[in-house]
Design goal:
Blueprint: H1 2-6, H2 18-29, H3 40-48, H4 60-76, H5 79-89, E1 91-93, E2 96-97, H6 99-107, H7 116-125, H8 133-144, H9 150-160, H10 165-168, H11 172-180
């Protein structure tokens, strides 16, 4: 779901999606909204070297630096390693970083037991982690080529709703910990 949403040609490029860059440039030249052409490899390079400007970096210089770094990364790492790094470093919602934290905080599940709808919703969060439930669900529908978005809307509302406020507000965690953990070294299960 993440590859489908973020980098459709991930398996076939060398870190730079030249077709995506050409399409983005063409759209910009014709006054249309240009879709970002950053590959997963470019975004990982930005995560690993913040001086490159991060995954959302704008401007030609920043993009050129990310492109060079992505190609260097691709020369050293396998596609599986790059995808794993991306999944562990990406921000999903609030302070939630990485697929493991997102799966647990948003769905109460380990990543290995996420269902297809859960995966679509997580992938749909990546471009705009703070998006409202309907926007996330519609994006998930597009990624999954779904005709009926209603089940995804309901799941997105449950994922992003008031019941999930702790994940979105890290300032609440210490207060909850004080209430739940009465003795030093205690844990919850």
């Amino acid at each position: 779901a993440v590859v489908a949403a973020e980098d459709k040609r991930f398996a076939s490029h060398d870190g730079v999606d030249w077709r995506g860059i050409a399409g983005s440039a063409w759209a910009a030249l014709h006054g249309r909204a240009a879709r970002g052409a950053s590959t997963l490899s470019m975004q990982v390079a930005g995560f690993l070297a913040p001086d490159l400007g991060g995954p959302g970096a704008r401007g030609i210089r920043a993009k050129l630096r990310q492109m060079r770094a992505a190609q260097a990364l691709e020369a050293q790492w396998s596609k599986d390693q790059i995808l794993e790094a991306y999944l562990n470093l990406a921000s999903f919602r609030g302070e939630t970083q990485g697929i493991g934290a997102a799966a647990r905080s948003l769905f109460g599940k380990a990543p290995a037991v996420l269902g297809p709808d859960d995966a679509l919703l997580l992938a749909a969060l990546l471009p705009a982690p703070q998006a409202d439930a309907v926007t996330v669900a519609r994006r998930a529908c597009r990624i999954g080529h779904r005709a009926d978005c209603n089940p995804l809307i309901a799941a997105a509302e449950a994922m992003t709703g008031a019941g999930r406020r702790l994940a979105d507000d890290p300032d609440l965690a210490p207060h909850l910990a004080v209430r739940l953990l009465k003795t030093p070294g205690a844990t919850t299960t």
